[in-house]
């Protein structure tokens, strides 16, 4: 048969208790060192005997640093828990306040719409009436201001369009004037060219030659050019037989 499970209880015999303490203490310190080396963990072990004697082990002999880290972690953990509790309480209070505020706003909205007026007193009804009059006055003032701004914008737009139309009319008139002036200059040039151009007529002489008489600038002159004199028989029409 196998060994039975040892029941854990206080050893009454002082000598046996001291021997067991020494053995278990050595084993515990050994295990602490092993887990520190194998797992790269920071380990701090503190043991007080029944007589008050201190036995300790710490990784790399940094007991104070490990204990300070433990204190910071414990303090921050407590602060976090306390902060979460405080925040949850604040959220509960804030939710209650917002809920009450929403109910008041919904009631005021119904009253402004003319609903649920039976529960209001005379003073509350008068206050509601004053609020409605003030709201209507503010709305009308804003409406008039918006209309004035719209009219002013339309007037500016109309003035800009009129200025643009006037500029276009001015350009059209200038172009028409230039066109008329150019037409008059063309007419004058054609008249002057027709006046300055010499006019010729054919005359016959005794010798049977035809001469050309030209008139220029109102002065008649007889131009007898050799190339322009032709025999009379060359000027007679010929008939085809």
Could you describe the 3D structure shown?
- The protein is of the alpha+beta class and 241 residues long.
- Among the domains are: 14-67, Transcription factor, MADS-box (SRF-like), CATH 3.40.1810; 120-179.
- The chain is 64% helix and 13% strand.
- The chain contains four helices and six strands, in the order H-E-E-H-H-E-E-E-E-H.
- The protein has helices at residues 14-39, 63-112, 122-196, 232-235; strands at residues 44-48, 54-58, 199-204, 209-216, 219-223, 230-231.
- Strands 3, 4, 5 and 6 form a four-stranded antiparallel sheet that branches. It has a two-stranded antiparallel sheet with strand order 1-2.
- A hairpin with a 5-residue loop joins strand 1 and strand 2.
- Residues 1-61 form the MADS-box domain.
- Residues 88-115 form a coiled coil.
- Keywords: Coiled coil, DNA-binding, Nucleus, Transcription, Transcription regulation.
- Residues 88-178 form the K-box domain.
- GO terms for molecular function: DNA-binding transcription factor activity; protein dimerization activity; RNA polymerase II transcription regulatory region sequence-specific DNA binding.
């Amino acid at each position: 048969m196998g060994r039975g499970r040892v029941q854990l209880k206080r050893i009454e015999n002082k000598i046996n208790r001291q021997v067991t303490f020494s053995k278990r203490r050595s084993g515990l310190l050994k295990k602490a060192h092993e887990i520190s080396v194998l797992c790269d963990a920071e380990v701090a072990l503190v043991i007080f005997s029944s007589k008050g004697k201190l036995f300790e082990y710490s990784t790399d002999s940094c007991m104070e640093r490990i204990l300070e880290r433990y204190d910071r972690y414990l303090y921050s953990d407590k602060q976090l828990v306390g902060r979460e509790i405080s925040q949850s309480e604040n959220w509960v209070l804030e939710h209650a306040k917002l809920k009450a505020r929403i109910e008041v706003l919904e009631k005021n909205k119904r009253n402004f719409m003319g609903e649920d007026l039976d529960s209001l007193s005379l003073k509350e009804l008068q206050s509601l009436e004053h609020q409605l009059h003030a709201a209507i006055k503010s709305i009308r003032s804003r409406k008039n201001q918006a209309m004035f701004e719209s009219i002013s914008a339309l007037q500016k737009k109309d003035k800009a369009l009129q200025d643009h139309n006037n500029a276009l009319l001015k350009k059209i008139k200038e172009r028409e004037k230039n066109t008329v002036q150019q037409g008059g200059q063309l007419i004058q040039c054609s008249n002057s060219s027709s006046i300055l151009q010499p006019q010729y007529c054919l005359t016959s002489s005794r010798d049977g030659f035809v001469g050309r008489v030209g008139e220029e600038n109102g002065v008649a002159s007889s131009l007898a050019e050799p190339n322009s004199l032709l025999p009379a028989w060359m000027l007679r029409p010929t008939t085809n037989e």
